Amino acid sequence: MQAMPAGIAASYYVLPSLGRIYIEPQHFTDLPDTAVTGLQESLYRNRVRVLEDPHATQSVHGIAAFASLHVSVVVTAALGAHLVRLPVVLRTALWTYALLTALATVYFGWHYLVDVLAGAVLGALATWLAARAIRPGGGPTEHMPLQEARVHQ
């Protein structure tokens, strides 16, 4: 499962980007002030400190938009639930959560739609790699009961 974080981390360096909230903040001024707003402002202040003098601050540059790690993680969880045939209600809840996560990251300006799509692709790729590692020759299209997945670990 190390492929997913490594792939996303690589995308942050190969295609560095900021979410729309930092590029076009005027589009988000009508949103209510929430914890999300405070976090976005804090991350931006840290970014400015790091860019001004990386060696003079303890701050971390924590803004990276492409691909969406939020979406990648929840898509991986939803696909994993399908692979091990978790109950339908849980699978439905995970896909609903994935959809809401994708919508929220765009709505709050963390990501552009392309970031969300790339995150979903990386999540699917990570799930496929994990399925191949657990069951050589198998993949996400071959459903694996939970009991069988435990045997192959």
UniProtKB/TrEMBL annotation:
Family annotation (Gene3D superfamilies): Phosphatidic acid phosphatase type 2/haloperoxidase
Gene Ontology CC: one annotated term: membrane
Alphabetical list of Pfam families matching this protein: PAP2_3
InterPro entries: Aur1/Ipt1, PAP2/HPO_sf
UniProtKB keywords: Membrane, Transmembrane, Transmembrane helix
Start and end residues of each Inositolphosphotransferase Aur1/Ipt1 domain: 9-128
Transmembrane domains' residue ranges: 60-81, 88-110, 116-134
Protein's recorded name: Phosphatase PAP2 family protein
Native source organism of the sequence: Arthrobacter bussei
